[in-house]
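Example 238.
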Amino acid sequence: MEKTFLLNVPISITNYDEVLKEIKESIINNTKFSIVSINLNKIILSNEDKTMKETIKSFDCFIPDGVSIVKNNEKIKERITGIDLFEKICENHRNIKAKIFLYGASNESVNNTKNILENKYKDINIVGVENGYIKDNEELINKINCLKPNIVIVALGSPKQEKWIYLNKNKINANVFMGVGGAFDVIGGKVRRAPVIIRKIGLEWLYRIIREPKRMKQLPLQIKYWYILKKKKDVKHL
Ligand code: UDP
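Predicted structure in complex with uridine-5'-diphosphate:
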């Protein structure tokens, strides 16, 4: 998959269909394929935290999730969000033929997500779930390996979910690993996603700060990097 870079962070030049094809192929060929969503937050984490930079680089596919990513790099044609890619995997479950495991969020959110997806996509194969607050990681890995999923969807928020995938993907006999942040809270009905118009103009991050003031501490770095991206529009290579 071809890549470009924004402030030294890799971004795949791709689209939904191509990513879905790669997912299907990695299941057929029994190879690993890990997906990370690149948004302003990942640009910040990667530039401010050395371990996160290494963690992100270990992934195979870097979907351009944030509007600020798409707007500041002319090579990127299509925005691919983690939550929409997850929904497309579910929509295409008959073609992909995957067994899915959901890990993350509260018991209520992850179970609601499973039930909602099973009602929406009739014979989808969600083989198991686990909430994101389980203490025993070894027990979790054994559980996942016993259930034999092909796809593990991880909703722990960033950077936790990327670090978990980085540290655990080779211990788990699954093919595809993807972090989806707060997607189980959205699909499970606990949190409402920003209105389409807010998403289109690229202010979803501001909407989330207003709705969840605990995110306010992220604001100075968000503004700093949003400004750097706007000013420089620089495409660098590692
Ligand atoms: N979460 C979790 N375990 C943790 C911390 C967080 O499962 O130890 C879940 C939390 O319940 C929420 C999600 O991770 O469902 C984080 O969502 P958020 O919207 O903060 O993630 P972001 O998209 O901002 O990375």
